[in-house]
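Today's session is about reading a structure prediction critically. Students often jump straight to the picture, but the first step is always the sequence itself: look for stretches that repeat, for charged clusters, for runs of hydrophobic residues. Only then move on to the predicted structure, which in these notes is written as discrete structure tokens rather than atom positions. Here is the chain we will use throughout the hour.
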Amino acid sequence: MTERGFYGTVAKTVSRWCGRPSTFSLAVGVILVWIVTGPIFGFSDTWQLVINTGTTIITFLMVFLIQNTQNRDTAAIQLKLDELIRATNGAHNALLDLEELEESKLEAFRARYEKLAAVARLRLERGETDTDTPDA
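Below is the predicted structure for this chain, in token form.
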């Protein structure tokens, strides 16, 4: 298994585990234990440092896991949308893979579709339909 494959597998597994109600309950339990032990340790600096260090490390690592999950989800959604565009008769294949375009080119596409939307709204106001077939 490649390094990238290993990380992806671990990230998916940990992400699924972290999203479970039992994991949330475990986290709440750890915090309750920490609170209860406060008087035992006299609310010392070390007692506070334990929770601060633990939560900081977990938060730091979770940022990477969340980003990995979001990247995978976004890539999958983009591929599914690209396939719908590709498979739809009359759809513009130039819209495939838009997320990879430079900002100026993406803005040009956005402006074009904003104009189409404005025209469609005007048609609705006149009582007309706002559906049509894209030009092939």
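Discussion point for the tutorial: The chain has a mean pLDDT of 90.
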